[in-house]
Amino acid sequence: MVQTNRNKKTQYYKAHKEILVAIDCIIFGFSDNDLKVLLLKRDFEPAKGQISLIGGFVRQEESLDNAAARILHELTGLKDIYLEQLYTYGSIDRDPGERVISVAYCALLKIQDLDHEYVRMHSARWCPISDCPELIFDHETMIEKAIRRIQRRAKNRPIGFELLPEHFTIPQLQKLYEAIYQRKLDSRNFRKKLLAMNILKKYDKKDKSSSKKGAYLYSFDKKKYNKLLKDGFHFDL
After folding, report:
1. How far is CA 62 from CA 9, 28, 65, 66, 105, in A?
2. Which of 49, 111, 118, 151 has its CA at a distance of 20 to 30 angstroms from the CA of residue 233?
3. CA distance 155 to 161
4. Residue 1: what pLDDT?
């Protein structure tokens, strides 16, 4: 029945040439005090051998959101990733292979959750946003827009929840926000504003990987975090 209905629909628009719809995913992670984006080396034409974002084409039976989630899962093996539709790119000559409209999505994930061997099998690698190679088509523009988006999001939701491990220190969280905003932050002011939000759980255990004195470990209080998201807030740094 579904196939029959689809054939009927095709008859309505048979005078119009089909245009391909693609998904491009700007996947951000955080490690070594750097905000990073996941890139791959293309193994097909056009632009075979060049560096690009992770992407694919939307299937007939898929919505845009479902297509983006599938593409992310195929590469990372992860589900329930923070995923937000970013922008639609439709310049006539943006892809030399065919007329392709691309819907860009911004994704945030914890790098330590990935099966890194699985990622390498897809010829993918993490690249600091401050040192990305030349990318194909309009992918550099997509990354620039995605960075501006998460900079805005960082002001009204604690996105470190999606990028940091379950337990982290306040200095580590500050390094994340410095990587997002690409500037230094005052440590005392950052700590004061963060603790005032009252969404962290403090543990007796310390992380001593950066200093002998160490720093206390924290985690997000999910209940308070979700309430804050619902009520709204402004984390002005």
Report:
1. 16, 24, 8, 6, 15
2. 111
3. 13
4. 44
Rounded Cα gap, residues 23 and 58, in angstroms: 7
Contact (CB, 8 A) for 150 and 106: yes
The answer to whether residues 149 and 173 belong to one domain is no
Give yes or no: residues 44 and 127 share one domain.
Answer: yes
pLDDT in tens, 41-95: 999 999 999 999 999 999 999 999 999 999 999 988 888 889 999 999 999 999 9
Give the number of other Cβ atoms within 10 Å of residue 36's Cβ.
22
How many CB atoms sit inside 10 A of residue 113's CB? Answer: 13
Per the structure block, which two tokens stand in for 208?
Answer: 């001593």
Report the alpha-carbon distance of residue 39 to residue 104 in Å, rounded.
14
Tokens 């491990």, residue?
165
Domain range for 59 is: 19-153
**Looking at the domain assignment, is residue 1 inside a domain?**
no
Q: Do 187 and 140 lie in a common domain? A: no
Is the dihedral angle over the CA atoms 58, 135, 42, 40 positive or is it negative? Answer: negative
Domain ends where: 137, 153, 169?
Answer: 153
Task: Report the predicted TM-score, pTM, of the whole model to 2 decimal places.
Answer: 0.89
